[in-house]
Every structure is written in C-alpha cells, then in structure tokens.
Amino acid sequence: MGGVDAALLPIEVEEFLVHLVAERGRAASTLVAYRRDLARYAGWLAERDEVVASASEDDLVDYLRSLQAQGRAPASVKRSMVAVRGLHRFLAAEDPTILDPASAVRPPPVAAGLPKALTEDEVERLLDSLVGDEPVIRRDRALLELLYGTGIRISEAVAVSLGDLDLVELLLRVTGKGDKERIVPLGSMASDALVAWLEPGGRERLAPAQWRRRGDAEALFLNQRGGRLSRQGGWLVVKQHAKRVGLDDRLSPHVLRHSCATHMLDHGADIRAVQELLGHASISTTQVYTKVSDERLVEAYRAAHPRAIA
User: Which of 11, 140, 142, 158 is a plausible cystine mate for 193, CB 3.0–4.6 Å?
Assistant: First the structure.
C-alpha cells in the first residue's frame, strides 16, 4: 500500500496532530504512531483520487478491509483505525458542515492476551533457588517473595518505603497507578523474607555511610551502591534469578503478578478480592485471570480424566 511522506501530510492531518499535542497532551511516542498511521491512510486515499476531507463511510470500510487483507495484526489494524476515526471526529467537530464518516465504522475487536502464568512448581523452584545469607541474596529473596506473594507491580515494589511496611499486622501500603494507595496483606513467606532482609547483615550492609537522597534512606529495597533500587534494577533481579533456573525466556516481574492472581483463583479466591489485591480499577481487568484459570482447569481435566478423550 502506498503512503504519503509523513513530512508532507495534508493540512487537516497536521491540524489534528497539533490538536493532540496542544489540547490533549498526547505523548511524543503516540504522535509518532498517529503520524505514521495517518500518512498511510492519506496515501491510500490519494491512490483512489480521494482526499481526507471528502472521505466517505464506504472509503473507511474499504480501508479497514485493505489493512486486514494485508495480514496486519489485529492490534495494528485497530490502532490504525483509532487514529483515522479520531481524525474524522476532530474534523467534524471543527466544521459542523462536515459529517463524520467514521462514526459508524468500529475498529475490529482485539482478543485479550492471556497472561502466561508459571506453574506453582516453577514458582517454588525459583524461590527455593535463592540460597545464602549474603545481603544481596536476602534482598532478592525478599523482592521475589513480595512480588509473587502480593501480586504488586515492580514499580510499586521499588517505591515502597520502610514506613509503608507493618511487620506486626503483616500489611503493606502500596501506591499504585494514579497515586492511589491500597493496603495489601503479607503472607508468612514474604514477611519472613522481609524480616531477614531488614535484620542485621541484610539491608544495613548495603546502606552507605551517607545517604545521597532522603528517598534512598527511606527505601525498602536498596541497590548495591546504597541508593533506592530502580524499576529497571528490580526487573534485572528477577531476570537474573530466572536465568539461573531456566525460566529466563518466560519470567518477568509481570509474570509473577500474573502467577499470583492465577494461583489465587485456582485455589478458590473471590475475584473481587483479587481485584483489590492487584489494584485494578475495573473488575473487567481482573476477569482475564479467570479465563486463565478456566483454561488450566480444562487442560487438567483433559489430561487426567479417563473419559475425557474418546
């Protein structure tokens, strides 16, 4: 499919992109994607001797079908159509004499990607591999136990400060997306690992003689230079230990979060309790894990029941 030079887009498209920056505050990466998608759309129209301002509903339907005919991924097609629909909605809002040809053209649905949880045996193998009493091992064990034991995000884990932790009541205060706070319970394995990390010979061994930032002094998890462990640093901790047990191609901090949710549902947890634990604003976000749990049940049934396969 042809395209239009992204530097020479139709004026209508340029005005829409300016609107996204000035009025909607869209990120630079979003603008790059919109510019590319709309250049492709404008080029397709030009090949049909059409222009953006006069595109019809039939044109948009044909464009959608042409994207699908090229074998593009459903998510890519949907993103392109979201950009096109946004453009036409903007033009119609700017000029009441222009009808919005995209109002009845919906982007194709994209199947929700199912998270690939580890098995409980794989999680146990990972956590049992952290053997030793060195400060870094204590820290890494505490971090991994916390990620799996609570399902919190890696960004939330590295943002935890000492004052957020209550090892008497076994509770942790977490600041999630949108600066929303929630309280999550700590299981015995996670709390034991955290106690070991905070005892003499653990966190204190990584603490510097003088803190560079106050936030570092309050951080629960420290890096080996005595600063607050970063999100990237936490991600590398997980990948390092995943590699040691042969799970590096499957494991990330987010997979531990997936695994926590899936295993809780496997063991009968109420979905709303899992929603609260994970900090999901909508129950629909959490429901993807029920699909994972159901699929695992079906697989286990077909593998084990003597009359499951004719």
Answer: 142
